[in-house]
User: Fold these one by one.
Assistant:
Number 1:
Amino acid sequence: MLTSTSAHAGHATVAQWVQNIKGAALRELFPLVTRADVTSFAFGLPAAELLPLKDYAAASSRVLSLDPRALQYQLPPESLKIHIQGLLASRGVNCRPDQIFLTAGAQQATHSLVNLFLEQRGQVLVEEVAYEGLQTALTPLQPEILAVPSGMESGMDLDAVESQLVRGARPAFIYAITDGHNPLSLSLSQASRIRLVEMARRFRIPILEDDVFGFLSYDGPALPPMRALDEEWVFYIGSLSKTLAPALRIGWIVAPAAFSPALHFLKQSNDLDTTTLSQLTVSSYLDTGVFPSHLATLRREYGKRRDAMLNALKAHFPLEARWRKPTCGMFIWVELPPEIDTIDLLRMAVKTEQVAFMPGAIFAMSGNRGARNGIRLNFTHCPVEQIEPGVARLARVLKRFMRSGR
Amino acid sequence: MLTSTSAHAGHATVAQWVQNIKGAALRELFPLVTRADVTSFAFGLPAAELLPLKDYAAASSRVLSLDPRALQYQLPPESLKIHIQGLLASRGVNCRPDQIFLTAGAQQATHSLVNLFLEQRGQVLVEEVAYEGLQTALTPLQPEILAVPSGMESGMDLDAVESQLVRGARPAFIYAITDGHNPLSLSLSQASRIRLVEMARRFRIPILEDDVFGFLSYDGPALPPMRALDEEWVFYIGSLSKTLAPALRIGWIVAPAAFSPALHFLKQSNDLDTTTLSQLTVSSYLDTGVFPSHLATLRREYGKRRDAMLNALKAHFPLEARWRKPTCGMFIWVELPPEIDTIDLLRMAVKTEQVAFMPGAIFAMSGNRGARNGIRLNFTHCPVEQIEPGVARLARVLKRFMRSGR
């Protein structure tokens, strides 16, 4: 790692925040979880065989043959915003196209909102266990993290949030994943949604609502996201990466139109705002009307995989392990006894049983050690027939690991 | 514009830098320069009719039918880095694929390097008249700008650079466009390239070398960029937006491999680094070997348009106007008498003669007023037969404007 004091004699001096990058310890895990011979429950990947390659290829051909400006600089297409408006209406969110701001995936939406609200070394309110993409977006701004715990049943501890705010904390924003929390696989209750929005209004703190998993619901539709309750304080982050395809980089923010000039400036600053070929192609794909049935297929297939994983956990995992049935998303979060370091467990699991997961430490905010005994299991990527055997092998390692007293 | 003190009663509070966004005065110009009935020399657009739509469509079909992981999350393709390595070799730059870092266009490359080196409120050394995309990348970090003048003949004033550095300034970086400067349309001499690199080494200051125009050369190949002279202090920014197509967002950084982890972290932070479909498709397009002849076509056609514009300027513009013949890039920079405010001129030009250009004020760093009498004329976008009549109309407005004593 480079440091701002020039680790290597000849190097240019980098900004101080670069020293805060999570180091080699975590990066060395990636070769482990991506090995070809390993059954990996590690990443939040869609099922490759369910990606709509043919329909997308047809849309791509249409756009490239019919639109002579397809490869030129142009403005983000209004047609895609109108499609997104319709998708959001199906989640109970009413918004206008001028409140929709297109981004290169949800990560860029998050990065933009972080930079819109957060001063260098400002404060943010985040759960102790949080999506790692939020953490990478925050790092260059070196914020003070006001961390609140999360319950295994109810999610973000709203008493802790209120207590921070009542004591005078005024974070730049509160970050929340309403449905299918990554990594905790929880969804907030309606009462929690209402309470959090009320706190945002009362204390005048924007909520960054990350809703990339709300469309992947397995027991009927998810509740409407918080943006359905408030359009002034809730800044909604959406994406087609989980439901259509990750490589297309279609994400968006829903925000009051007054913030558009600043968001537009940020997008210009980041990448000039011109991934329009992908946007035009996705819009053409959505024109065909096949997306609702594609979504239904995903819900059915991913629902089967979720159930297969839940059944396998019940059949094979030790009694000390705890998890909940997720209603949305791509993950099951399993809490193991507190003495277990799941990074060590991962190394053993890959070595002895060729099975991988994401260790909880990846999601621990600002060096917090509380999540080290958790593991995040993805159930969407592996074919259903690999899930039970993979979980059984993981359970074998785990039991061996627990017996060895590690 | 939103302010950090909440212009509207109900608004969430935005970060302080948002107040520094260039305001409505400049934004209001954009509808003017994009009006359908206007001959626009304003933007740095490729010729739409020369974009390789068919070849790109064929590559897109190949990738989507042959690569089942085309829509999935994956790592940036090594094959594209190897193609870029070959392209750079043709510019006299030797580098390895592990020194090439793919980005979403040159803007994201610039944004990443700015964030790699620059602390909040740190110093940077930039020309007084600079590419506006650099300015948007800098704004959120609120730097102190050490501005140096540029000569109409020699470009960046290297005596001024040296004087700043000798007096002890240690900016986070020096930003330079080596060939086809945007907007000044100059290329640095070989002596200037060598001198600037020597200063970078001597004072240990990285150079951000923006080379997006070096491949568009009209009087034989451009000189090798500064990266050919130094691989430690020169951080090279490249792009296919000007030579292949803007909508694909293919750009790159060439940097010592030791900086890869930090650049990778920044890319993850910004957009997760997964625009791989576009990267795979461009790589497949480059596999076919048609790019060199496409480049030759661009050089020939754009060269004709450049010459048409130079001839028209000579035929129609008043004697007081000054410009140079650019050897690279997309622009001709014209200096008008110092009393002329080219924003006012633009308004009159669009209104009375339906012709547009980019006024110099857009490129003035940090409120500097020195460029207000300059205009940037793009010669690549308009068909060659529109150039002479457009310049003639612009000259008519200009002469009227000068007579009116504005």
Number 2:
Amino acid sequence: MIVVMRHGATEEEIQRVVAHIESKPDFRAHISRGVERTVIGVLGQIYPELKDELETFPGVAEVLRVSKPYKLSSREFHPDDTQVRVGDVVIGNDEVVVMAGPCSVESEKQLLETAQAVKAAGARILRGGAFKPRTSPYSFQGLGVQGLRLLAKAREETGLPIITEVMTAEDVDLVATYADILQIGARNVQNFKLLHAVGKVAKPVLLKRGFATTYEEWLLAAEYILAGGNKQVILCERGIRTFETYTRNTLDLAAVPVIKRLSHLPIIVDPSHGTGKWHLVTPMALAGVAAGAHGLLIEVHPNPDQALSDGAQSLTPENFRKLMDGVRAVAGALGKRVAPPSQPVAV
Amino acid sequence: MIVVMRHGATEEEIQRVVAHIESKPDFRAHISRGVERTVIGVLGQIYPELKDELETFPGVAEVLRVSKPYKLSSREFHPDDTQVRVGDVVIGNDEVVVMAGPCSVESEKQLLETAQAVKAAGARILRGGAFKPRTSPYSFQGLGVQGLRLLAKAREETGLPIITEVMTAEDVDLVATYADILQIGARNVQNFKLLHAVGKVAKPVLLKRGFATTYEEWLLAAEYILAGGNKQVILCERGIRTFETYTRNTLDLAAVPVIKRLSHLPIIVDPSHGTGKWHLVTPMALAGVAAGAHGLLIEVHPNPDQALSDGAQSLTPENFRKLMDGVRAVAGALGKRVAPPSQPVAV
Amino acid sequence: MIVVMRHGATEEEIQRVVAHIESKPDFRAHISRGVERTVIGVLGQIYPELKDELETFPGVAEVLRVSKPYKLSSREFHPDDTQVRVGDVVIGNDEVVVMAGPCSVESEKQLLETAQAVKAAGARILRGGAFKPRTSPYSFQGLGVQGLRLLAKAREETGLPIITEVMTAEDVDLVATYADILQIGARNVQNFKLLHAVGKVAKPVLLKRGFATTYEEWLLAAEYILAGGNKQVILCERGIRTFETYTRNTLDLAAVPVIKRLSHLPIIVDPSHGTGKWHLVTPMALAGVAAGAHGLLIEVHPNPDQALSDGAQSLTPENFRKLMDGVRAVAGALGKRVAPPSQPVAV
Amino acid sequence: MIVVMRHGATEEEIQRVVAHIESKPDFRAHISRGVERTVIGVLGQIYPELKDELETFPGVAEVLRVSKPYKLSSREFHPDDTQVRVGDVVIGNDEVVVMAGPCSVESEKQLLETAQAVKAAGARILRGGAFKPRTSPYSFQGLGVQGLRLLAKAREETGLPIITEVMTAEDVDLVATYADILQIGARNVQNFKLLHAVGKVAKPVLLKRGFATTYEEWLLAAEYILAGGNKQVILCERGIRTFETYTRNTLDLAAVPVIKRLSHLPIIVDPSHGTGKWHLVTPMALAGVAAGAHGLLIEVHPNPDQALSDGAQSLTPENFRKLMDGVRAVAGALGKRVAPPSQPVAV
């Protein structure tokens, strides 16, 4: 941590800061007098509040951090890639893993039909929401436990592991008995009680970026889970909120190479929420793969115009097959693998 | 709801949309053929998903909503101002109600000292965090139940009602046994399980705007609480996230007159989180009052440089007294009331 | 400037950075080895590109600036407030100076009528656009020179100095022969040729913040003008672009106390563009005054529904008189002055 | 255009709006009375100011546009792709055209060396800045005319057409005598005098998106150029400003498929400015190609740590060759072409 003094800070102001730092056990201050101003290096076991503390001193212009506030999620302290295993699927190596399915589980027919279609096209994991966070209290809120049971049934029929969202700490144990991967949604990325709870379970967690979450805050959210003991964390970029409103969100694909540099955790991309329009999903999925993503999360619905949520951004099974063809082409060009279609596909 | 067809949409595309609309009970479509394009009005009991549904049809350029998606929180459907009562304090009339206290409850001494000081200066409600949402798992997380007990003690000693945050649905009953007002923090504005839970208690709720929440989403979050049966909701603007990083957040004071126009709920301003720097708190507090806020939420700490959280944005008791003098002057100029200092103040 | 090395940077990497710094005349490097990483202080006459330069070295995690990149506009190097004089009006002292008038000059009748009305209500300076930057090429682009002549005529009739926008370096001399204050619009805040040109004229310049300009970039834009020799610069906050679209922009009133701390230049507020809705103009004008602004810029039009630009955000003369009453009340409460109405006003 | 009346608007308010609309020649109003509110369709030759005009009427809740405000740049009115020709290079067909070179022209040696290197690797157009828009007045401002001459010399030696920025209307003729493509920088996207000027020249224009420009505003900026008579416009996405500060900008790759849908103009991607960090340039370049971009704009410098501008985001010639290999692989996978390396490359 570096304390930057104001131009013209008095010697007494400088010494008060030094004294405060050195009043802490094992801390030392290190003064450096520049042409225009003095800076004071802080040596010791830095804690997050120290910045606020030092900024209240007279004569201080600014306090700069030089260490990242996260450790367990950082590549500096854990250089090797984390690989998350779900049955025989590995997320975080050279396979591009596609997770697909409906936004919400609506009925047995809708779910099984979609599950078979996405499996046939090469998806490796089935997604589907049972508990749905909805902006309006008047929107469909999901089937709840009944949705979880249908997901389990779809897994049984297709062999695909399932990922589904958990919205509150209380539901973690329930959802974990059904799901293969627990999803934390964008609105809950800083629901610290929930992060704490999923840090205690033995299932992988997919942590979506919030729509106004910086990379650093996102890795600190992951840190809550890792610090709880659960090392199986997958990150998912799903778009951030900006001034542009044509798209539902602005998909920040630079997150892919940035996270791979800052962290050892795998990162996947959700172009469905990231754009909010079905006709943008395929180009952005391909772009995500080209940027280096370890996987994709795609919404597919047999009849998007009948969907109870997010119809506008869902692909038909037919369009999903085309997406998978593109994904295979791009991934192949970059030396990555994608699961083949699992059965003859009638066109 | 208005469906805007693309320039050149075919008659068949138009008729498919019309047929879809009219397939719903009690819905009618109303075609209007303009110079450049056709628009179709949708008459019927609109539901949020209908937009997505219609946007998937070929030939549709855009679907525009013409109704607000919230009702209970809207002024159109509830023209008179809501007044929230807490003991003898009323939030939502012509008194500017100041809530003040430390960010976190740290100790009995710190809390009581602050409580006495803010009361003396004219605060009407004591704030203090017992459960703290913290970006880093390594930061102080609050005293929990012990903090709640200290708040109750401070209320006993000073007579000030207390406001404190609740972070998860599970804790609502516990916190409600101690607090006079339940606070929902910015990160939980779309924690729908929590909103649902506080909708069921008989205590007022202060709902902070999230840092990337639009006015509409904020009012929809309030709608969850109102729809649950709890009509005592206070809104609190606390800054949004923008590209400017000098301030911790960008305090959006236009929220005050906007919310007063769109809704009947009282709105207060938190310039402490809204700026993140103590030297900006007083000017922005005065600005909030001038914009028409029903109250203020201010962080005060006896020794900001020793605070376990948010020291950089906390006022000393002395600076808080000066803030209150300014608030009284501005409120008075606009015909509003502010509580007087409760005892002689030594300067 | 501080070079933060990566955790685990090699001694050779550190020494390459040191050698590079010390290869420059009169530069010294200052190594500080912390618990987790090494930081290198750079002592010497820092120039902006040095940051980029040092960030390309292997082993470097980050380069932090500790000096502000602007000097002439900074309060650190110029502690006393700048006061800008226009005739007998002073901007930057304890008077709140109101500049008002139509968005665009449309006709002699419209301008003179508005000029008389705003003068009567206490405005001190007349605003009006002759050259209009318009998002669409199909919108009214202003009357040009004819508009300048009408402004000069309105000045003659009312005695009010005039402020009008200049859009391009070529027009600076022309506009300066008519205007008392040259306005640089938000879209031109980084039109460096234009900034350079107004730095050479002997008229005050009002520099609006761009809608995506940080405080630092804004002060650097002012620096271009000051460095050209023109010290008469007024800053104007007019809202920034955020995710919220209900308002045209998000008026960032914290800019007022922030700029007063970082700079000696006067700062005023434009709540008309800052909100885009006439019913928000008065509360935000009062808030601006309470935040400490040195003045206001307000759009007034005799018939807002007939305005050729920005009708939705223009006040009628009647509403402007009410705004001025509120401004007088708030300014008075804070010990500031506002010009009285100049003649009996018939209500 | 649709006028949405408030819930409870009176018949008189409705009739005033209708009368206003129908007072205009060839305009008709079309009333539709819904369950909750009345909406009025406006039929006639809509102009941009009409929205503001109608929003000032009592009883009006909102005015919604149903037509796009741009025509010449819109795909609805010009369905076929525009192809821009520069010598034998075509931008806008199935070749991915790479434009590369230094941010600033610094010296003959630096420019020629870079030009040869990028040509060898497969670049088709040479970029280089002679006039540089710089945030700080103390930064290197470019070599000016001398830089243009060096660019012309590099074209002569390599055969590569050149693209360079023009910053002000006055310089358009000068720059056009040297450049093959005129670049309008992000800060000038709404410099309407400059857009007007380049609309009159017979050279292609590359129009960068501003860092806070919506798709619609960007296409309206293009409309200025097209309306001036110049149909050879290329759009370039270069990142927008968001709350995330790790990257210099947030590269919005969804702009690629969105613009291809809304417009017939070709679109390319600048991952150098779009990220600001050299190690992110290659993954984001590949992502841009996968998203469907017609080309790339890449900064290359023989010694990035000596660059007078943007060193941190410049690739070495070696890294640029690797980028081109990746671009060829991804483009090939999608059935697109990229120029081959033009000569054996020594590694």
